[in-house]
Each structure stands twice: as C-alpha cells, then as structure tokens.
Amino acid sequence: MKLRNYLASQGILATDFAKELDVHLRTVRNWLAGTFVPMKLHQKKIEDYSNGKVTTKDWKNAAKKETNRRVRSGKDDGVQSAQCVGVDKKAKLKSSKEK
Q1: Which residue has the higher pLDDT, 97 or 81?
Q2: Choosing a second label site near 88 at 20 to 30 A (CA), which of 14, 32, 58, 70?
C-alpha cells in the first residue's frame, strides 16, 4: 500500500505523521510525492507505524518505478551530473597545472 493511501484511509495529516516519525514535514511531502524514497530506518518506522500496511517492499517497488521513469524520460538524477561536474573541474585543474 502506498503511504499516501494509508494516511488518507486513516485520516492522518502529513504534519501529524511527520511529528510522529520525528522528521521534517518537507521530508514526508517528498515521500508522498515520490520525489524521494525513505531511508531504511524510516521505512521500518513507517511499517511499524502502519502495522505492516505500508511495507519496505512497497518502497522498493516505488524506487524501481521511479528509476525506470527517469531512464525512459532521459531525466538526469542530479547526483550523477554533480559528480560529473566535479570530475570535469578536476580534469581542468590538472590540465592547467600541466601547462
């Protein structure tokens, strides 16, 4: 079950859920939007909180779908490009020192 569906079925607000899990509201909103997948620690807390209705398996499926969507759309995940930029800067510094 998706976290969004669970919270709606129980009438739980994102603000209340964030307080219960001791995370920032923005974090919960990112989880609900599918922007980020919770860390394993939070996945376990969510599973415990929902009495097993939202499982770690649900998050694995969500992560796979998000990865497939990004690959099909050609979107960059930001992390990769940041790493590439860092590599490019190092290469430029190295080449300028060689001159």
Answers
A1: 97
A2: 70
